[in-house]
Amino acid sequence: MSKADLLEKWGDHLRNARRRSPHTVRAYLATAGRLIDANQLETWAEVAALDAAALRRQLALRRADGLANTSAARELSALKTFIAFARGQTGGDTTAPRLRGPRIKKGLPRPVTPDEAVNLAELVGGNAAEDWIGERDRAVLLLMYGAGLRIAEALSLTGGDLPLGETLTVTGKGGKQRVVPLIPLVRDGVAAYARRCPWPLTKDAPLFRGAKGGPLGQGMVQKAMASARVALGLPATATPHALRHSFATHLLSAGADLRSLQELLGHASLGSTQIYTRVDAATMLDTYRKAHPRGR
Predict the structure, then answer these.
(1) What is the set of active-site residues?
(2) Domain end marker among 236, 268, 286
(3) Quick one: 236 exposed, middle or buried, by C-beta within 10 A (0-12, 13-18, 19+)?
């Protein structure tokens, strides 16, 4: 078996079984290709036999090339996923080698970037024990970042909300309803989960289900995101609720007015929305200080 054969099967799994984005597939294939070259691997058995020491050596090679801690953490996650897949191909235990990622220097709390938000959703989906659970967790996070939903609002959706259209009517705090637009990425994420969910998504039943078919609890989403946050080297402030804050901050940066943002977030008062003007000002000031020659 050649390197091309290994990567072709790995890529097919990522695209079709895991339904990863083209960006994620490219990154995971490149990471796997470097591992294969460095260790002259030719079979799934050889990939499956790699241990924590082999991963440590691979990261050391990449660090020598100037790879930063945050990128090294992402690469380690991709390597673990690849080896776990190889072990499944050989009929063995699909547990990945255990190796702690590089330490990430803690910075100031900040909203996650659009790329970080999507990477979080992708990594949470890829780390799940079952494909349908991965699609579920990914869909919940995309609803929070792509539509600004609170976690409780996302988990309150029912099968009657399917199929999702270009807008969604959400019932928020105090029973107040609002209409939020849904971008294709969010709609596709929820549709992918609905196709794979093993439980009947009837009109009055919860849309998002736990492993045993009951309503999905907030704790499971928080736990999945915490694991992905560590793997990507993001600060402790990168919680599920932070995705909603990032949704608001990014819209404000793009020119949304406070009144429109208030409606999208379902805030009872404009005062609750005005906090994002301070968050955005702090973000711009931080960028100025880092980039401007006289900013320090």
Answers:
(1) 150, 173, 241, 244, 267, 276
(2) 236
(3) exposed
